Amino acid sequence: MSVGANQALSRIKVTVESARAASDGERLRRYRRAVQWGALLLAVLIPVTGLFRIDPAAGAFVVLDRQIWFSDFFIVVGFWLAVSSLLVMTYSTFGTAFCGWACPQNTFSEWANRMTQKFLGKRAEVSLTGELIHVSPGKKKWINWLMLGGLFLGASLLLALIPLLYFYPPDVVWSFISVRDDARLAASLHWIYTVFVLIILVDIAVVRYFFCRFMCIYRVWQHSFKTRQTLHIAYDDARGERCASCNFCLSVCPVEIDPRNTSTYDSCINCGACISACDSLQYRLGEPGLLRFEFGERKLSKLVGLAIQQGSRLKSNLGTLLGRFSWSLPLTAIGAAMFTWGLLSYQPYHLSVYRADTNQGTIQDYRIGLANKLYREALLKVRIEGLPTDSYELSGSEMAFTTVGRKDLNVHIAPVLTKGLHPFVVQVESQDGWRASYRVQHFVSRSGR
């Protein structure tokens, strides 16, 4: 080959298509998948670590192995204030991003779709409109149906254990799994677990996105706070000729809407599948996709000065976010502060004293109520101050607990006190340094001497 030919070849512009075409769309899918499985892992870790669960025996909430009573004002009010304001902030700002990125219902609906297409063909879809599943001719085998049903059943058996973790400690759930006797297990738990399994099985095998579109309570609340300023899919209609004969975004949409024409209230779950699909096609032509996430009402346009547009869009979006956070963020912070203070000032034990019996109008017996609010062993020591030692009888000076619970001690006042008022104090002290006292005014109407 001549030198001139080599020089001519060297002047030919060679464009190497990097992995960007696949990377941008694939990166979005990877991020979303990581958030989805991270949310599911978090749903398991919350009860397993003791961060939050429900004690069915006591009918109480449990936070960090602390039993929460309504008297724990700062914890109760702070928690609900923080959660409710945070949810409103999420509703109004990020819209249905929770549905597409973190909701377990959506996560397993996607997984069920992938498994269905793997075993029954790419056109196999589950629909509640009465249409039959389109099974590929090469996959009409009983083994495929059997393996798909086995996967769905196995997933249901596993997922049904997660609700149990919110009502029982991990060791109790393990006793249930290993079929070991445990006094803490409810007698009807096997039936309850079977109901959970059946509900989840029907959900992932048949219902799937039908629940997201028509039955999700999150979407009902969403309608109260969502506006066009909320995060949504924006479409570059100025380049609409690019997709004149392409419906790839529509075909990959899990809730079967047209991403190019979204409205304030629709079934979009902000999953970004349409964005990834469009990017994967347009980047092959060296151009960005026609779909993107955006705040605000302004659509993409072809005005000159893209950098200026992006800067103004960033300002507008930040302004929108700050405007929505202006009232909800302070409420969230106040709720979080109250919750934190409630945990720091938490009273792990409770003392109360009340009348136990009367004798001709004179109270002679009292009952000391002791409660352990921690899920661990405790020993409380009790003593009475202010009365002569020969004037009362205490049924015990110590009370031991193996876990949370309530127990009583009895105090009998002997009829030896003189007429009048005899105040005394019940003092309680725990091994970990907690102290409490309860003052009682004991009145004797007539002398017992």
Chart the SSEs and their pairings:
Layout: H1 3-10, H2 20-48, E1 53-55, E2 60-63, E3 66-68, H3 73-94, H4 97-101, H5 104-120, H6 142-159, H7 161-165, H8 170-177, H9 189-207, H10 209-214, H11 217-222, E4 232-235, H12 248-252, H13 273-282, E5 291-294, H14 306-344, E6 349-359, E7 362-372, E8 378-385, E9 392-394, E10 398-401, E11 405-413, E12 420-430, E13 435-444
Antiparallel strand pairs: 1-2, 2-3, 4-5, 6-7, 7-11, 8-10, 8-12, 9-11, 12-13
Helical element count? 14
Residue share in helices?
Answer: 40-55%
* Poorly predicted tracts of residues: 12-19, 298-312
Sequence of strands across the biggest β-sheet: 6-7-11-9
- Give the CA-based shape: elongated
* Count of individual beta strands: 13
Share of residues in strands: 15-25%
Largest sheet data: 4 strands, antiparallel
Q: Structural class of the secondary structure composition?
A: alpha+beta
Secondary-structure element order, N to C = HHEEEHHHHHHHHHEHHEHEEEEEEEE
CA radius of gyration: 33 Å
Descriptive account of the structure:
With 449 residues, the protein is of the alpha+beta class. Among the domains are: 20-69 and 96-222, no CATH class; 349-444, Immunoglobulins (Immunoglobulin-like). 44% of the residues lie in helices and 19% in strands. The protein contains 14 helices and 13 strands. It has a 4-stranded antiparallel β-sheet, with no helix packed on it. Helix 6 crosses helix 9 (189-207). The radius of gyration is 33 Å and the shape is elongated. The termini are far apart. Mean pLDDT is 82; it is low at 12-19 and 298-312.
